């Protein structure tokens, strides 16, 4: 038996020298949740460095916003984060409303809260389904998408679209919710509650899953803050940052719910975080449904909202307002505003610069996935390749949100 | 000290299993009494303490000179603030006069007492900014994005590359003088989008680049001509 010759940097006996190998993952890869390319430098089975390459979905939303009227911008906002569209829509309309000092009716705000939370459930359902699918568990996908289908039917009933809704308008909503919709939501919430119990018993305690998620990709709180993480990823590291509590919008201060945190900061904590957030969202929607009172759903200011159809037949003034709003749109005063909103992925905010024209001068989207993705480079170092998939799945980026 | 390597850092990954705590279940805080009134969100005092001038805007904003940026950022970090976002704005076609062409705003937030402050730096084309990467690692992608889309260079950034646009796209799309399909959009090695062909596609005169036969949407002068139906009806 020959011994390996001594050389600088030799490993202790029993370990092999391996070359650093660069492995290309994606852009078309089922576990990258879209089109994300990762170049992974590996030493044997261990990850040395991860370099994400994004931009495959970059469509220049921010530039598009500058060339569309404020009201048309509602079409683009939901297309960034297509899993929690209502989060981006809400952030956009709240910012423009702050510029305009618009007066949003009570009913519109309550419906917004309901849809914002249902959107969060929708996003977390996809997280639970596809996240576990990435780990090789096929069944949860079908369980989660059963509820997701029911939820998309609710979205379709309210605005005609199953995804990319564009239902909110500056100053209120596109139209009132259909008759009987609150009862359908109630029914869905009951189904969802049973679903959450099922997920918890079916796979949250699964030993194979626990093995792959526990202690994998730990992000300590000070690192999470340094990396700019927000949302469930930050709360899993023990920082209770939630804009619904900290900077309440849409009357969230009057709802009773908890901010869920964990101290572990690992993949399992990030996963369980979402499972528990289902319950809090259900609680908020239940309270909001109780508060629904009949009333208008648009700002009565005719300089902001379109007049109702029947007025166009009798009132010249309504026709003029309609014409001006459709051809030109409204002109908010000059200024720069930012309203943070807690989406399923973290802080979403639209920094809007107005120069007094009918189109925004500049719109900057604070996309949580883009910033959260930086944690991947940190958390994967030293992990095995299979852990990289776990970590990417639990960080839960949406590539539309990353690339915009 | 390396901000990503806290003093008590332990190895990550499989070997790190032992360091994770035993209970995996996240904690649900009991719905106790509502927390007492939050401390003031006002940052006027903080801005004065850092020796900065306040910019009177709708959002709490402090004006910083490029030379002062790192010091102000470090001081804010020591207060416990985190970097949320970096916004680049090109004011070259803005209706009101602005001190310089570009502004870079750092959106800084305190995760525990919920104060938010924007640091605004004015700069002209060609001027550079110090990178905040040594202070907050979050600046990595955020500054790359501003560099890519707005063309502001950050010194001290370890990896200042394009992040969103294709590697061979020249120019910075979010600048106000970036052509919107009206002049050739140049890519490297002679590839370019020909505006005439592109417009022709939009007006429906011929199939154009994309084959899209939509209606004329915007433009000036002769572009205002309505779409022309080809001989013998639509193909």
Overall description:
The complex is a heterodimer of chains A (404) and B (235). With 404 residues, chain A is of the alpha+beta class. Chain A contains 17 helices and nine strands. Chain A has one domain (61-369): Orthogonal Bundle (Cytochrome-c3 Hydrogenase, chain B), CATH 1.10.645. Chain A has helices at 61-66, 73-80, 85-100, 106-134, 139-159, 181-204, 207-213, 221-226, 232-236, 243-246, 267-291, 309-312, 316-327, 368-372, 374-379, 385-395, 399-403; strands at 20-25, 37-43, 46-53, 168-169, 172-173, 335-337, 340-342, 347-354, 362-366. In chain A, a hairpin with a 2-residue loop joins strand 2 and strand 3. The model of chain A is unreliable at 1-10 (pLDDT under 50). Chain B is an alpha/beta fold. Among the domains of chain B are: 41-155, 2-Layer Sandwich (Beta Polymerase, domain 2), CATH 3.30.460; 185-224, no CATH class. Chain B has helices at residues 44-49, 69-78, 139-150, 195-203; strands spanning 53-55, 61-64, 82-90, 102-109, 116-123, 128-130, 153-155, 185-186, 192-193. In chain B, a hairpin with a 5-residue loop joins strand 8 and strand 9. Chain B is elongated. The termini of chain B are far apart. Chains A and B meet through helix 8, helix 11, strand 6, strand 8 and strand 9 of A and strand 3, strand 4 and helix 3 of B.
Descriptive key words:
heterodimer, A: 404 residues, alpha+beta, Cytochrome-c3 Hydrogenase, chain B, 3-stranded antiparallel beta sheet, 17 helices, disordered N terminus, B: 235 residues, alpha/beta, Beta Polymerase, domain 2, 5-stranded mixed beta sheet, two-stranded parallel ribbon, 9 strands, elongated
């Amino acid at each position: 038996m020959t011994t390996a010759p001594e050389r600088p940097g030799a490993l202790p006996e029993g370990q092999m020298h391996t070359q650093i190998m660069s492995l290309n993952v994606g852009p078309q890869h089922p576990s990258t949740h879209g089109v994300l390319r990762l170049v992974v430098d590996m030493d044997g089975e261990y990850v040395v460095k991860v370099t994400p390459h994004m931009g495959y979905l970059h469509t220049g939303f921010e530039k598009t916003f500058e060339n569309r009227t404020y009201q048309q911008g509602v079409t683009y906002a939901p297309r960034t984060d297509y899993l929690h569209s209502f989060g981006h829509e809400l952030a956009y309309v709240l910012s423009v409303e702050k510029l305009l000092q618009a007066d949003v009716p009570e009913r519109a705000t309550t419906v917004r809260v309901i849809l914002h939370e249902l959107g969060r459930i929708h996003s977390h359902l996809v997280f639970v389904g596809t996240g576990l699918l990435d780990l090789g568990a096929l069944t949860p996908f079908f369980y989660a998408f059963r509820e997701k289908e029911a939820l998309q039917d609710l979205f379709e009933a309210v605005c005609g679209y199953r995804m990319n809704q564009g239902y909110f308008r500056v100053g209120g909503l596109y139209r009132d919710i259909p008759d009987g919709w609150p009862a359908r939501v109630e029914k869905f919430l009951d189904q969802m509650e049973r679903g959450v119990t099922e997920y918890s018993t079916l796979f949250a305690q699964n030993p194979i899953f626990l093995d792959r998620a526990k202690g994998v990709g730990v992000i300590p709180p000070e690192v999470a803050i340094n990396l700019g993480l927000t949302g469930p990823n930050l709360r899993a590291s023990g920082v209770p940052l939630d804009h619904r509590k900290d900077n309440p919008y849409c009357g969230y201060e009057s709802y009773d719910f908890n901010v869920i945190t964990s101290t572990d900061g690992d993949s399992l904590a990030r996963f369980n975080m979402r499972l528990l957030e289902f319950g809090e969202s259900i609680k908020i929607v239940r309270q909001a449904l109780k508060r629904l009172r009949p009333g208008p759903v648009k700002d009565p200011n005719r300089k902001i909202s379109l007049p109702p159809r029947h007025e166009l037949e009798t009132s010249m003034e309504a026709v003029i307002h309609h014409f001006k709003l459709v051809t030109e749109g409204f002109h908010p005063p000059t200024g720069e505003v930012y309203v943070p909103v807690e989406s399923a992925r973290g802080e979403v905010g639209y920094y809007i610069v107005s120069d007094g024209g009918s189109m925004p001068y500049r719109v900057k989207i604070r996309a949580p996935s883009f910033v959260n993705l930086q944690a991947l480079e940190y958390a994967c170092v030293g992990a095995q390749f299979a852990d990289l998939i776990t970590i990417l799945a639990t960080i839960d980026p949406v590539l539309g949100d990353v690339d915009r | 000290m390396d901000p990503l390597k806290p003093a008590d850092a332990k190895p990550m990954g499989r070997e790190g299993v032992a360091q994770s705590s035993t209970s995996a279940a996240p904690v649900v805080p009991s719905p106790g009494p509502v927390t007492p009134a939050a401390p003031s969100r006002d940052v006027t005092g903080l801005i004065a303490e850092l020796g900065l001038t306040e910019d009177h805007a709708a959002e709490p904003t402090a004006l910083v000179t490029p030379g002062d940026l790192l010091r102000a950022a470090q001081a804010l970090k020591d207060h416990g603030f985190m970097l949320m976002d970096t916004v680049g704005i090109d004011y070259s076609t803005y209706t009101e006069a602005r001190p310089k062409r570009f502004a870079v705003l750092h959106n800084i937030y305190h995760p525990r007492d919920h104060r938010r402050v924007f640091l605004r730096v004015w700069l002209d084309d060609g001027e550079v900014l110090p990178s905040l990467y040594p202070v907050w690692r979050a600046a990595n992608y955020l500054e790359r994005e501003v560099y890519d889309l707005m063309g502001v260079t950050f010194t001290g950034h370890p990896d200042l590359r394009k992040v969103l646009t294709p590697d061979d796209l020249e120019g910075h799309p979010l600048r106000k003088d970036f052509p919107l399909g009206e002049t050739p959009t140049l890519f490297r090695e002679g590839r370019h989008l020909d505006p005439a062909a592109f417009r022709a596609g939009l007006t429906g005169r011929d199939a154009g680049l994309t084959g899209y036969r939509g209606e004329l949407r915007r433009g000036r002068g002769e572009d205002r001509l309505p779409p022309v139906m080809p001989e013998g009806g639509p193909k």
